[in-house]
Design a protein that fits this description.
By secondary structure, this protein is mainly α. Helix content is 69%, strand content 0%.
């Protein structure tokens, strides 16, 4: 077993201690489901847009970036890495869509942190909330056994990187 596999197994063991907890399961499954197809992030873009004219560029930039990020990850990176998803044949307390793409990287984590990076630009009051929501969504993917922890970490890094690139290419 290599270092990454040992890391993933260790983190999965930590999550195993809270799987089956009603509240933890509810939060993880709901966060995963809400973030499917970036619905959560699009909704936050709309809410940001509605906050007024000074937020519209940030909302529009994040909205477009979500589609670009999804194409890069799902049509690009995931086709290169054909990593098998964790075994999740055990009981699931809630329904969840089964992805058909590669496990690496986590698209949920990538879109979460890309959106959080872009939506928090110039918004120090809400920045911690964006990143908290992104963290809950990303970690939910390990909890529901749709991703290995290393998939999620890679997704976070890619998401932040793409968000920072978006900030540089299209500054406020």
């Amino acid at each position: 077993m290599n270092l990454v596999e040992r890391f993933d197994e260790h983190v999965d063991g930590l999550f195993e201690t809270i799987r089956g907890n009603r509240e933890a399961d509810f939060l993880a499954y709901k966060a995963s489901a809400l973030a499917e197809n970036s619905k959560l992030w699009m909704a936050l873009c709309v809410i940001t847009w509605l906050r007024g004219p000074s937020y519209r560029f940030v909302a529009k930039r994040a909205f477009v970036a979500i589609f670009v990020e999804s194409a890069i990850v799902n049509l690009g990176i995931k086709t290169i890495f054909r990593r098998k998803r964790p075994d999740h044949s055990g009981p699931h307390p809630h329904d969840l869509r089964e992805p058909w793409t590669s496990s690496f990287p986590s698209g949920h984590a990538t879109s979460a942190f890309c959106a959080a990076t872009l939506l928090s630009d110039g918004d120090p009051a809400l920045a911690p909330l964006y990143y908290l929501v992104a963290t809950v969504v990303a970690s939910s993917r390990v909890h529901v056994k749709m991703h290995h922890a290393s998939d999620v970490i890679a997704g976070i890094a890619i998401g932040i990187g793409l968000g920072q690139l978006g900030r540089r290419l299209f500054p406020r």
